């Protein structure tokens, strides 16, 4: 019977445990060394898990078979608690022991303590003692080696997307899995608030660091107001791209990480994510608010449109990240407020731009009747507005435009949209202002050259810009091309009627060929000399006038030639008794002189 009993499984296990304890007790020079040996042996056989030190091992062996390891009962649990307590104590007190035992063994010890904490004060105390180490582990993992995100200076003109996947944000997948393992134990132990505090602190700092790499930084309103335009322009441009990256990569990744770490407590996870994201989101919105309330300079409009479009683009994504009526309502309200402020800024900036056009009061005429700088500026401005017409339709609504009746006559459905009416009104203000500017010129012919130059530029820019052409319509283009022809006619009348009717006339007063079959009378010397003087003056003046567009310049020369050359040919055809004395210019010379007109370089004819 003794032989059979000794051969039983329980007896064999007892002998293994006893032998192991004897070896450890014989070789160990200290209690810590003994514990280290027990831990080493346990890696070969789980039955050798260090349930006790050599000293307690003797006591365990003396306590009878009911309390022996592997036999169950209170004795076994007490040994497990004692072992867990010892591992926790050693790792907490000695960094070298912590390195020897390793984090996984520490977590197994915590598991044992948590399992018994509900009915053992000793186990509960061990769990409590383990929490600082677990908190530090969570903090270390959440702050370790974040993946770098950045937008280079070359990326700000493109819809740049950071390279990191939204999964886990800037945290590596391995680190995220480790955090979850530690967090699960803290949550099971009832230390959710402590976990939340550590988690929020670490991830809030990591998120702020990553957002800063994308160009998101805290800027006070006073700084924005004082900022030079070149610096502010760069910041506004970067913000428009960074807000998309922050919402769709950083915050989306943080939400996924939160969901994973707090899988067993979703409500706490939602609260933690809101706390992590709050500072970053408010910092993003703070810059946009500062831009919105700063001076509404016209040069800021295009960048403000970009910021408005970027924020409204990510608005649904941002609001969807938050759960719970409280958090979602808070962030939705903050975003909506900023969107409204940016929209209000856009409306007032456009309105003030119209006032600036109307109130422009410089009294300096542009040399040679060239295109006025204001015309170029306004057309560039309107072109940018046209490119964002969808956004402007939302922002403007029915505000600030009063020419709906004109819109119905343009033959284009887009012409009735708020953006189309806005652009049409700005161009109308511009053309009225150019009409006022034309009065700065004393010469009526130059007044019409100036008006022609500016209107032709407007029409060409509208024709060449698909968004502008679509918004204003072909009827608008036809009407204004007709106006250009009217300015041309007015120019010809103002500049050439006197020459044609006074100096290149027949004796009967007509400025055309003599009737067929009639002999022409000799021209009057006074008429020839008068034409010479008049043409010299016109040549001096109109070579200094500038018609910027080559096609328009050629059209004007042709229009002048069609009136002047036939009349001069007829004038010469009448004959003269003293052609050398009075006729200084041949027909060919006159045609060549015409090629110098409207080049903006004054020239002189010396006869």
From TrEMBL:
Domain Exocyst complex subunit Exo70 C-terminal residue range list: 238-595
Region described as Disordered: spans on this chain: 44-79, 143-175
Biased composition (Acidic residues): 56-65
Keyword Protein transport (UniProt): yes
Example GO BP: exocytosis
Keywords assigned by UniProt, alphabetized: Exocytosis, Protein transport, Transport
Any GO CC annotation of this UniProt entry: exocyst
Low complexity bias (residue ranges): 143-153
Alphabetical list of InterPro entries matching this protein: Cullin_repeat-like_dom_sf (IPR016159), Exo70 (IPR004140), Exo70_C (IPR046364)
Lineage: superkingdom: Eukaryota
Keyword Protein transport: yes
GO molecular function: phosphatidylinositol-4,5-bisphosphate binding
Function: Component of the exocyst complex.
Family: Belongs to the EXO70 family.
Name of the featured protein: Exocyst subunit Exo70 family protein
Organism lineage: Eukaryota, Viridiplantae, Streptophyta, Embryophyta, Tracheophyta
């Amino acid at each position: 019977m003794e032989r059979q009993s000794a051969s039983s499984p329980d007896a064999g296990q007892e002998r293994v445990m006893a032998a192991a304890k004897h070896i450890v007790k014989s070789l160990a020079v200290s209690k810590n060394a003994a514990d280290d040996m027990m831990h080493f042996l346990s890696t070969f056989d789980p039955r050798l898990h260090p349930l006790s030190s050599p000293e307690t091992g003797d006591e365990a062996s003396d306590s009878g078979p009911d309390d022996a390891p592997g036999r169950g009962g209170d004795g076994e649990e007490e040994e497990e608690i004692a072992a867990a307590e010892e591992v926790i104590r050693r790792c907490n007190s000695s960094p070298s022991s912590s390195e020897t035992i390793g984090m996984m063994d520490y977590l197994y010890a915590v598991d044992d303590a948590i399992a018994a904490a509900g009915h053992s004060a000793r186990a509960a105390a061990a769990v409590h003692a383990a929490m600082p180490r677990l908190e530090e582990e969570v903090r270390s993992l959440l702050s370790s080696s974040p993946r770098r995100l950045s937008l280079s200076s070359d990326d700000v003109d493109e819809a740049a997307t950071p390279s990191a996947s939204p999964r886990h944000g800037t945290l590596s997948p391995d680190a995220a899995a480790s955090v979850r393992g530690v967090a699960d134990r803290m949550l099971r132990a009832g230390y959710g608030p402590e976990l939340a505090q550590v988690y929020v602190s670490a991830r809030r700092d990591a998120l702020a660091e990553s957002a800063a790499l994308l160009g998101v930084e805290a800027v006070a309103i006073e700084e924005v107001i004082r900022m030079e335009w070149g610096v502010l322009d760069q910041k506004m441009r970067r913000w428009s791209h960074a807000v998309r990256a922050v919402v769709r990569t950083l915050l989306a990744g943080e939400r996924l990480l939160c969901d994973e770490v707090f899988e067993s407590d979703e409500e706490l996870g939602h609260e933690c994510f809101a706390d992590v994201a709050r500072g970053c989101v408010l910092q993003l919105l703070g810059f946009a608010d500062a831009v919105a309330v700063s001076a509404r300079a016209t040069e800021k409009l295009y960048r403000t449109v970009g910021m408005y479009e970027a924020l409204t683009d990510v608005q649904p994504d941002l609001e969807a990240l938050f759960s719970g009526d409280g958090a979602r309502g808070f962030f939705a309200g903050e975003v909506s407020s900023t969107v409204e402020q940016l929209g209000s800024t856009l409306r007032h900036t456009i309105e003030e731009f119209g006032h600036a056009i109307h109130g422009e009061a410089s009294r300096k005429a542009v040399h040679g009747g060239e295109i006025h700088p204001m015309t170029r500026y306004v057309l560039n401005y309107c072109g940018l507005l046209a490119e964002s017409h969808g956004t402007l339709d939302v922002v403007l609504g029915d505000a600030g435009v009063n020419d709906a009746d004109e819109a119905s006559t343009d033959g284009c459905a887009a012409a009735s949209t708020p953006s189309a009416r806005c652009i049409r009104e700005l161009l109308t203000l511009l053309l009225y202002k150019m009409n006022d500017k034309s009065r700065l010129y004393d010469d009526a012919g130059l007044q019409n050259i100036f008006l022609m130059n500016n209107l032709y530029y407007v029409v060409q820019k509208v024709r060449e810009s698909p968004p502008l052409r679509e918004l204003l319509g072909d009827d608008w283009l036809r009407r204004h091309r007709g106006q250009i022809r009217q300015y041309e006619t007015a120019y010809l009348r103002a500049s050439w009627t006197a020459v044609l009717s006074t100096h290149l006339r027949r004796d009967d007063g007509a400025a055309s060929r003599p009737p067929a079959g009639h002999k022409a009378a000799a021209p009057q010397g006074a008429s020839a000399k008068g034409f010479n003087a008049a043409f010299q003056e016109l040549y001096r003046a109109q070579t200094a006038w500038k018609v910027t567009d080559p096609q328009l310049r050629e059209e004007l020369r042709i229009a002048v030639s069609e009136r002047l050359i036939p009349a001069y040919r007829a004038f010469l055809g009448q004959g003269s008794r003293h052609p050398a004395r009075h006729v200084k210019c041949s027909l060919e010379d006159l045609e060549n002189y015409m090629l110098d007109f409207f080049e903006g370089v004054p020239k002189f004819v010396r006869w």
